[in-house]
Amino acid sequence: MAEKMLQFVRLQQRQPEKRDAAERRGDWGEVYRAYAAEAAQQQASRCSQCGVPFCQVHCPLNNNIPDWLKLTAEGRLEEAYEVASATNTFPEICGRVCPQDRLCEGNCVIEKGFESVTIGAVEKFITDTAWEKGWVKPPAAVRERAESIGIIGAGPAGLAAAERLRTLGYQVTVYDRHDRAGGLMIYGIPNFKLEKDVVLRRAAQFEQGGIAFRLNVAVGRDVTLGELRQRHDALLVATGVYKARDIACPGAGLPGVVAALDYLIASNRKGLGDAVPEFDSGALDARGRHVVVVGGGDTAMDCVRTAVRQGAASVTCLYRRDKANMPGSMREVKNAEEEGVRFEWLAAPEAFTGTDRVEAVRAQRMHLGLPDATGRQQVEPIPGAHFTLEADLVIKALGFDPEDLPALFNEPALAVTRWGTLKVDHRTMMTALPGVFAAGDIVRGASLVVWGIRDGRDAAEQMHLYLQARAEAPAMAAE
Ligand code: FAD
Ligand code: SF4
Ligand code: SF4
User: Fold this and answer.
1) What phi and psi values does residue 400 have, to the nearest 5 degrees?
2) Which of 29, 65, 386, 425 minimizes the number of CB atoms within 10 Å of its CB?
3) Residue 408 CA: which ligand 1 atom is closest?
4) Global pTM value
5) What percent of the chain has pLDDT over 90?
6) Which residue ranges have their beta carbon within 6 Å of ligand 3?
7) What is the Å distance from ligand 3's center to 250 Cα?
8) ipTM for the complex?
9) So which residues are the signal peptide here (predicted)?
10) Superfamily of domain 148-241+402-478
């Protein structure tokens, strides 16, 4: 092992500099500045090169983290990029948006007694450098194959599969109902976590590599799944989950009570320079408003922080459990607190009140009771404990469920689980329809970008095996 490594005993952990909260509130730039080359090299050298690297075990992509840290510490960045990109389609995106505290960094062994290696920030540094130096290349087919593959959904799962399949030489077409590729990476996750150029430059390279994009095409509306099955030799459904969970309380239909994704899409579109009438009319703009966001996940955190940047008069997050039980990443909660968001823990909305539009939220204080069958403490109301918050914009961020795909696609044979996610054979990733595979949130439920990438890559491998087997035994595979 190089003497260069194991520097954690000497060098302290240093994440890239975080921009001051007052500065962040006034713009849409990312929160963390980039590492300078020397800092990245030093931080990488803190790794102790574990024989059994728990960071790698807990990375959904099983990235070869110790190797690219060592290469970075030695200044061999082009090789570091080769290693990082061998297992990850979008290392620079994961470096920005993975909840590293729960994945790689949270399981780094030097966390015990010292502080973990800054794995995500180094991964971002390596890949941003690779882009700057021109080392990132469009997918190149090893040899062209005649078979054609259709991918429905241009989110991380669909794009990761597209890249692998195109590299294997397949003719790949990606369909998406939005006008830009990227899925939630482009229209869900805000700019201050993931600047949009980072996503757009990848999509542009994929196009250069021969992946065809059919945007503004909603499967089920503009084309049927049956038609796509006829058009392609295999299909991948990677449509994500988009049915917003609702709140059943009085006043939920009042103007000014809006869904999180509508709000975030409008903000992201505005940032991309699009005409967004529902933003310009003020309906989805928090400027000058008293904003209440209901929910405690990452989507809720993105909404509160977007509202701060839009110039809201006040921003309050209402969550029915306490801080320790929030599903969102603690890093994002901390960022929101620094930026001036007020949290009302253990509080749930009872009613939205107002005459022509919402004016206030009446809320009920809760406490955590006994654990349920899953071991999670149940939330119970405290009798007589109510309070009211002024609110002229309420954003509902309670999570997402799958749309009814069998109905939307008019394919009753497309089997779903009791949660509405697509049922797949977990070995082959094929749905109940022969030749139709599925990956990402539509299989796992609302998850993470990094899991979408993993699933997309795995699905690509399975589709390749399926098409190879079919080519070798066409009679057996005939439907
Ligand atoms: P998606 O990214 O949802 O992509 C699906 C694509 O399919 C979309 O482009 C959609 O337009 C298209 N589509 C759907 N139906 C059709 C149809 N019928 N016809 C044609 N196209 C269709 N994860 C993280 O790791 N870190 C984060 O910080 C983070 N922040 C998040 C913030 C928000 C607000 C949200 C909502 C999610 C966040 N996530 C985050 C989760 C992450 O974005 C998702 O887990 C991931 O994008 C799922 O990838 P996917 O490819 O399965 O689906
Ligand atoms: Fe960590 Fe995510 Fe990178 Fe894996 S992909 S090493 S979990 S930041
Ligand atoms: Fe290095 Fe930490 Fe991974 Fe060990 S667990 S290889 S110290 S990054």
Assistant:
1) -130, 145
2) 425
3) 18
4) 0.94
5) 79
6) 47-50, 53-55, 65-66, 108-110, 117, 119
7) 51
8) 0.99
9) none
10) FAD/NAD(P)-binding domain (3.50.50.60)
